[in-house]
TrEMBL record:
Organism name: Paenibacillus yanchengensis
GO molecular function: hydrolase activity
Stored InterPro entries: AB_hydrolase_fold, Esterase-like, Mycobacterial_A85_antigen
Pfam families hit by this protein: Esterase (PF00756)
Official protein name in the record: Alpha/beta hydrolase
Keywords of this entry: Hydrolase
Keyword Hydrolase attached: yes
Hydrolase among keywords: yes
Amino acid sequence: MSNNAYLKRTIVKETITSKFLPEGERQLRVFLPPGYNDLLSYPIVYCQDGEEFFNFGRIATTATKLILDDGLEPFIIVGVEVNVKTRTAEYDPNGDRHKNYVSFFGEEVIPFIEQKYAVRNDPTERLLAGDSLGGTVSLHIALSYPTLFHRVLSLSGAFYSSSQQILQSIQSLDWLTVYMIVGLQEDAFETDTGVYNFVELNRTTRDLLLARNATVYYEEKDGKHQWGFWQKELPQALTYFIDVE
């Protein structure tokens, strides 16, 4: 199929008001699959770092190809945008805006989307996706709202000690499915809070999840902590969660 066919898609920009976020609102991007019909219902993928998932991850183009070429069931994507200046404060469980962001996601984003779009409201039909700290906050949103989310897609999740301690305090995660990918060249990645071995962080987190009976798909591949790596992994990751029709 020609590339033009993949670029003909519907992306709606939304503004959601919030009582939890200090700024009072947040921007969303909503990808509607080819042939979207509001009389039907669709699985849905919620992405942290929404702007980057669309611009650098090219998730809308990837989704369109998977639906048109590979026969995946059509699905909706919501990208929740973030201000880079407050990203760590919202995504890191130690951040001073983290609890507010998690509440915003579970109590405002979900009702807003489900009132406007034909999405399924089963926790196995909702997927939380994120890269680095976006993968971290996706896991913590699922842990905070286990009746809403059973599935997490983590691209090189930044699972620092605070996240691991939270996991250690939980007895069972037999309801949770986590897809984890990390690049082998991420063993000394410099962040704004220090240098971390993301491979070891992800291995330890995988083991903590498995010990609590979570379902985990885990893979290490050649790759760096950047969208050039994650973009190539998105088709496989989405196919893991979205069924073929």
